[in-house]
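Appendix C reproduces, verbatim, an entry submitted by the partner laboratory led by Prof. M.T., so that reviewers can inspect both the input and the predicted structure.
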Amino acid sequence: MQPNEFIQQLEESSGRICMAKNLNIPINRYRFFWKLSSSTGKEERNINWILKNVVLSIGAKPYWVTSWRMNEPSITRAKFTYSKRNQEGWQLFAKSEIYVAVKCMESIQSTPKGYTWQDGGIFILMCEANNLEMLVADQCLPTLTDLALSRKLRPGIGFINFLEQKHNSCIYFPYDDLGRKEIVVLTKIRIYPDQWINKTES
């Protein structure tokens, strides 16, 4: 994983957000971004098509993961979101000052049906089911706390080590200057986008 001035990273020791550095962790990072300088109106469809190919290339089971703070924007709102996720069948964890919810992806798309930004930050984790509880281990907590606060995944070294050590993968969706979703993938799997990226969507 090499430095990338366009990808944000959490510096866990200080809590600062910096540009992605070389952490000497043997994991691959892929960034899918738009070459055009203007929107076409087809971005969301294209994102879902690329996401489908990425998920198929990695081959592990995908889960949505979301986190939100227990007291923001209010305790009532946080508990309402917790109750809503529970009714929808998400697996729920409470750790420190945040809630974390995990659900197996029913259909390949960047967010589940009915999700809004007020529900917390969200990303896709691809892993074995027995790795899910390790999400709330101490090494992942700084990244998930930042996700709950900022609604952005900006992986810190502990979270990246969790991915590498357990052979997990994650996919998340930063936005460019025009407000268009990009895709960032962290995985030990070698992806070959040139096999499908320029082909017609099927």
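The chain has four helices and nine strands. Additional entries are available on request from the coordinating office.
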